[in-house]
Write a structure and sequence with these properties.
Chains A, B: Its cofactor is Mg(2+); Mn(2+). 2 copies of one chain form a homodimer. Chain A has 2 domains: 236 residues, nicotinate phosphoribosyltransferase, CATH 3.20.140.10; 227 residues, Aldolase class I (TIM Barrel, Alpha-Beta Barrel). The N terminus and C terminus of chain A are likely disordered. Chain A has 555 residues and is of the alpha/beta class. Chain A has a 6-stranded antiparallel beta sheet, covered by helices on one side. Chain A has a 6-stranded parallel beta sheet with strand order 7-6-13-12-11-10. In chain A, strand 8 and strand 9 form a beta hairpin. In chain A, 38% of the residues lie in helices and 16% in strands. Chain A is elongated, with a radius of gyration of 29 Å. The first copy, chain A, has 18 helices and 22 strands. At the A-B interface, helix 2, helix 4, helix 6, helix 7 and helix 8 of A face helix 2, helix 4, helix 6, helix 7 and helix 8 of B.
């Protein structure tokens, strides 16, 4: 099962998760350029491209890198079918036949991919991936790579930010399938939200593909579909330990509701509860007595939903089962969760049911970073958050602007100039390092030319801002981590890093986030993490800049 | 090729476009509910669900319905595989075997789907689809249907809004693949942007699947990959009519550049142009002389890119070819397009090249509704807009809140109450009509009970706001259109509407938008289009509301 654990099985890397991922999944201009390279005899020139982004999303100062495994699977299977070739012939009718013969031949056996490990905390300008190979082939990879990394990194980062604001102890559930960009958008969302620190998803297909824990109970429609307790025909329920059978669970529930209504400590908090809701809860408990979690806001949370839930839970308790909890999907979640908690505690005390007060409360109505933060400030009793729309659509910022820039061709460094300094790319085939300080925090990322000596533990090194002459600092790293590792070396599997299962990437992500200095992570005015270049690379960038700028426009 | 034209071939409807679309593509709670229905013996009860949305997106007053064909393909292929069943067994270990036998059996032969035609202009509260069938089966369809309709309708609407602001005469190109939510997000984006009125896409895979015209030229990397004209080895180019061959196209280009530099009318506008750019343009023209469209902003638009482009175009012109135009991807697009246009006109005059001044100008830098509107207000000379990020991510509003609500079960009308009136659903199995006025504009949509007489042309009918007693109006329709048509009648193909190809849906969409009264369409403070219920349905809703509300809370 390559799909469910993501590991490389000997030489073979499985098909991409999404079988629609074909080499045609690219922009037309990659083919017109490939043709122009081919016509000019340049198509085999060895090119180096960097894939990077320019700004952290969501007003934060960090990003999580996601999508690497999908990129590697893509190139491992990069080969045109005859049907794809014929389609391209029809789209580019003036191109010579020799070009299509060339396309028939190509694969990624001459391509190398160096990348930061998936699930790492990453920063602007530092290449997430460095892709080397024949210029025409690597150019064809641009669009799919950027497509596969952009949303993956964005939504992983969004998930990590939700985890940060919710805190470590809360359960985070991804409920976004219905709001994602189509089926595969939903599957990607579930995969990368889990990677970013969520605990479970509602998406069954994603659960199967990636081994993500699944969660879910019932909807309002389920509650509305019942009219009364009379509808329940089979009323028997075996006790949890199998030692006895209750012949009329419905009466047991009604009996507990009566006891509650008569209890001094609960008197006056509710009157007659909604009977179709009670029927729905009772039916659900009869079907899934070990997983009784009820949506309590179809009619009125405190006057109907919570009392009905407690009656069913107490009946279950009498048979040795333990109810799971409630879900709130509307209203004032802070207030309702606190009121529900009080009610559960009152039940615990009134009927002497240990732990009943600790019943799980899940909240799930249009939640996002801001609403969770607001709930935290108000005080609440929510244990689990079910988050959908704002998480999977990355509503607060729906795109990460990853780019794919040529930095070297035929051993000649290239740089993309722009009047906007933030858009200037850093030339050369580079190595990238993360330097750690005495307290174990990462201090700075540094890019160097390929052939420079690597920074060494304990040795002072000058780190320069790539474009601002006055910004520079000497750093003595206590630890040096090389960021770009080989994930694809043509056909050879020997030199390659493993592709770990999603679960392991999730662990890496959580661990890396914990390692960050807190001021980079805070939601309000976080401190930017510094990204630098070596002194030699700095000088070279500025030498090239002068030479590439058009005459009369030395910037 | 069912995929490319979307038509039904006799009885058979092809597989969904995306093979990942399996019956597992749903929320877990649909299965836990299905199990609870099954345990309660309710799973066969006939239920009616409405799929609708509550608010138009993007601050507008209309939405375009997309995603219907994908829903119909989904149900046409709705069947669990043994592998899927085993996965479900592992996820729901306490469920009885009989339930999985039931799942093995089910398909959608007992389901009926009535829907508004895809590509129609639609409004809040009116069901886009009405789905009837055994409650457990239809419940399993909720998540995939909402998933397939939500993003499709949202991005189609976004595309239509971009078309509206750009105007009918501009060419609109969708360039969003790299910013979409993964591969399938990109493919959906291309499909539905075309449906909403775009002219072409850069996405080759979408072009193949749906027959969408493809567009694309080259990137900055292509320009940066060249160093000088010396790199160009094969310099020969046959003339357009094949009658002659130019042995040194490079010299011809240089010769034209010289002529331009010496021309009185152009003197002083540019000096030495960038030679790697000139080499890139020349190479591109040698490869694709019929499709020469150059990206002119790698170095400096007016001092290098446009003059280099014109030199190559004039050389092509001498051989009988006609250049396509330029693309601007940065800077002040209004200003640059106007300057480029002046330059083209000067070339037309100076060298007497008819139509040269009409050269196509494409703009493509982070465009959206607002920036196009701003360009229009400033004045510009752009002919084509290439739009990516803001279009496909629906950045301005990343989600449409489609819902799927139970409105009837076992012939009993059901309604979802809420303290928030906008969230109350309209009960009953309904029919929906669009009433047209004298000028041909749609006046109002009206929902009626299933068995009420349909509104008739020329007959006065009372249209009531569903929840606001004081809002009511008599309407005498000049034309009545029934909105919900049968798109799936179990196994029978006889009663079904056709699923037209994407191109035809696009035509319907454009035509429907043109038919709308202009005040509903304007960007600033558009007039809401009215959605109403019949007097009988109004009375029934309010009767039910009183009866369903919990005691002590008559709302």
């Amino acid at each position: 099962m390559t799909d469910s654990n993501g590991s490389i099985d000997g030489e073979a890397i499985g098909r991409p998760t999404n079988p629609m991922v074909s080499p045609l999944l690219t922009d037309l201009y990659q083919f017109t350029m490939a043709y122009a390279y081919w016509k000019a005899g340049k198509h085999q020139e060895r090119a180096v491209f960097d894939l990077f982004f320019r700004r952290n999303p969501f007003g934060g100062e960090y990003t999580i890198f996601g999508g690497l495994e999908e990129c590697i699977r893509f190139i491992a299977n990069f080969k045109f079918t005859e049907e794809e070739i014929s389609f391209l012939c029809s789209v580019m009718p003036t191109c010579e036949d020799g070009f299509f013969d060339y396309l028939r031949e190509i694969d990624c056996s001459d391509v190398e991919v160096y990348a930061i490990s998936e699930g790492s905390v990453v920063f602007p300008k530092v290449p997430l991936m460095r892709i080397e190979g024949p210029v025409a082939v690597v150019q064809l990879l641009e669009t799919p790579f950027v497509n596969l990394v952009n949303y993956a990194s964005l939504v992983t980062t969004n998930a990590a930010r939700h985890r940060f604001v919710a805190g470590k102890t809360k359960h985070l559930l991804e409920f976004g399938l219905r709001r994602a960009q189509g089926p595969d958008g939903g599957i990607s969302a579930s995969r990368y939200c889990y990677m970013g620190g969520f605990d479970a998803t509602s998406n069954v297909a994603a659960g199967r593909l990636f081994g993500i824990p699944l969660r879910g109970t019932h909807s309002h429609a389920f509650v509305s579909s019942f009219m009364s307790l009379d509808e329940i025909v089979n009323k028997t329920l075996r006790s949890y330990d199998g030692s006895s059978t209750c012949d009329d669970f419905v009466s047991l529930v009604e009996c507990w509701l009566n006891k509650m209504q008569r209890a001094d400590s609960l008197r006056g908090t509710f009157g007659d509860t909604n009977q179709s809701e009670l029927a729905a809860f009772t039916s659900y408990a009869l079907a899934l007595p070990n997983n009784f979690l009820a949506l309590v806001d179809t009619y009125d949370v405190m006057r109907s939903g919570v009392p009905n839930f407690c009656a069913v839970s107490l009946a279950l308790n009498e048979l040795g089962y333990r109810a799971m909890g409630i879900r709130l999907d509307s209203g004032d979640l802070a207030y309702l969760s606190i009121e529900a908690r009080k009610f559960f505690c009152a039940i615990e005390k009134e009927f002497d049911i240990p732990e009943f007060g600790k019943m799980n409360i899940t909240a799930s109505n249009d939640l996002n970073e801001e609403t969770i933060d607001a709930l935290n400030k108000q005080g609440h009793e929510v244990d689990s958050f079910g988050i959908g729309t704002y998480l999977v659509t990355c509503y607060a910022q729906a795109a990460l602007g990853c780019v794919f820039k040529l930095v070297e061709i035929n051993n000649q460094p290239r740089m993309k100039l722009s009047e906007d300094v933030s858009k200037v790319s850093i030339p050369c085939k580079k190595r990238c390092f993360r330097l750690y300080g005495r307290e174990g925090y990462p201090l700075v990322d540094i890019m160097t030319g390929e052939n420079e000596p690597a920074p060494r533990m304990g040795d002072r090194i000058l780190c320069r801002h790539p474009f601002n002459e006055s910004k520079r600092a000497y750093v003595v790293p206590q630890r040096v981590e090389e960021l770009l590792k080989c994930y694809w070396a043509g056909g050879s599997a020997n030199k390659r890093e493993d592709l770990p299962p999603v679960k392991d990437i999730r662990e890496r992500c959580i661990q890396q986030l914990e390692q960050m200095r807190p001021d980079h992570m805070r939601r309000l005015n976080p401190t930017p993490y510094k990204v630098s270049v070596s002194a030699r690379l700095y000088d070279f960038i500025h030498f090239l800049w002068l030479n590439e700028a058009p005459v009369g426009e030395l910037q």
